[in-house]
Amino acid sequence: MKQYQDITKDRELLLGLARSDDKSLETIYSENFPVVLRMILQHNGSEDDAKDVFQEAIIILYEKACEGNFNLTSRLKTFLYSVCRHIWLKKVQSTYGLYSIPPEMEETIPATEVVDEHSTKDEQFRIMESAMGSIGEPCKTILEDYYIQKKSMQEIADKFGYTNAENAKNQKYKCLMRLKKLFFDQYNTSL
Amino acid sequence: MKEDMNLLREIERYLEGEMSGQEKAVFDELRKNNPQINRQVEEHQFFVQQLQHFGQRQSLQAKMDHLHQQLDMPTLRKQAQDENQAAKRVSIRRRTITNLAAAACIALVTSLSTIAVLQNAAKNKSTAQYEDVRRVLNNIQRSQNALINDINNKKKAPVNPGTYGGTGFAVSGNGYIVTNYHVVAGADSVYVQNNKGEAFKAVSVFEDISSDLAVLKIADSTFKSQPLPYALKPQNVKLGEEVFTMGFPRDEIVYGKGYISAKTGFNGDTTAYQVSIPVNPGNSGAPLMDAQGDVVGIVTGKQTTSDGIAFAVKSAHLKRLLDEMPKDKGMKKEIARKSHLEGLNRIDQIKKLEEFVYMVKVYN
């Protein structure tokens, strides 16, 4: 009964996370970070490692939550813990090559699938990040404002001092085409 | 360039649902007919998705960084370190306990096996020190046997000299003979032979393994009963008392003289004496007599580690054994009578005694 309740609470948190509810994120973050910190420190990691690993796990969780078809079967804590473990294990193995896996690092819940799925998305994110980094201003801000912040063309025109929304829109398309080119050039070569 | 931008604008309008019904229908048609445009539409859709995803992730990252800043890192760090140390200590303690348990088990096994080995060795040693003095008769010369047979050609004595031999002596006039249990143990048939060379078939009627005694009955029609000249001495004899024995370490009766050297037998056995007397294989079951010619014991074995030390079961024990014997065996209790040998010199005593001392031959 208790576990059932716990999972219900965790599911609510997950829904909150998908809605980008800051409160849910904060709860998840503050409740789970200490455990992961402890685990990473125990396995020769630093605090920064713990932060990176944990945030990556949260991102995975977020992606999963946004997809909508993610069914949380274990407690959130367990899920995050095993995902973090897996990420850290991978990191350690890739860094030290033959570093032997401590037996206690054996996974409690297999998180391989989740993490592997994530790595594709992560790759896409990196490409987009570098593309966005290289188009320069004001394209970057215009595109962010329009596509991410969902501001209207009028607002953007006002912000950047365009005479009308149509001009701003033209500028936006130019930027978009450049970004698309940058993105797909890299995306297609990386595939 | 211009066319591309126009197409992009159209695609965006299409995807964002800004087109009117008619425009949309036209565009759908275009998509269907022109795979290149269709591909561009899909590509754009994917791209916008990526872009949004990027934004979401960036904002999430920013939020998380913000949250992380708010965390009380020093406290968390301390907690984590403390917990890790505790966990390490527990695991070390657990490991120590496991190791200790393993060590204890090994120690226990080692000590137990050492004890077992030592005890076994001690037992082996003591059995090695003690030796039955029955005789293995395999190498008795045939000629001697043949000579005996020749003399007693009327008798039914087997030509085969037997496998083992010992000594026995009569405890009643009607053919009951006492010998050692180890002499007749496992016997198929037993023959007794007196010094005159007369052999009689005998059967074991009573055996007492613990005191190593056996009572045989002569089951032979040719045997004639005669009264015993000696008695069984019921009391224990004194230390140092002079004793003598007569036995068959060879095919001839052999006289031996000695004294009681201890009141207990091998390993402190209270039912036996230690006797300083020369005994040899074949002396087992021989009577031990005191100077009056009374039976005080039965020779059973000797200590191998030192010469001249033999052991004899006390006559008191034999008497008790005979009393315990079932009454229906038909043994006459005439043994308790006074000895007829008292006052005679040793040579005369021996002369009278030797008729009642038998060589026991065992076949198996």
Automatic annotation (TrEMBL), chain A:
<dbReference type="InterPro" id="IPR036388">
    <property type="entry name" value="WH-like_DNA-bd_sf"/>
</dbReference>
<keyword id="KW-0804">Transcription</keyword>
<keyword id="KW-0238">DNA-binding</keyword>
<dbReference type="InterPro" id="IPR013325">
    <property type="entry name" value="RNA_pol_sigma_r2"/>
</dbReference>
<keyword id="KW-0731">Sigma factor</keyword>
<comment type="similarity">
    <text>Belongs to the sigma-70 factor family. ECF subfamily.</text>
</comment>
<dbReference type="InterPro" id="IPR014284">
    <property type="entry name" value="RNA_pol_sigma-70_dom"/>
</dbReference>
<dbReference type="InterPro" id="IPR013324">
    <property type="entry name" value="RNA_pol_sigma_r3/r4-like"/>
</dbReference>
<keyword id="KW-0805">Transcription regulation</keyword>
<protein>
    <submittedName>
        <fullName>Sigma-70 family RNA polymerase sigma factor</fullName>
    </submittedName>
</protein>
<dbReference type="InterPro" id="IPR039425">
    <property type="entry name" value="RNA_pol_sigma-70-like"/>
</dbReference>
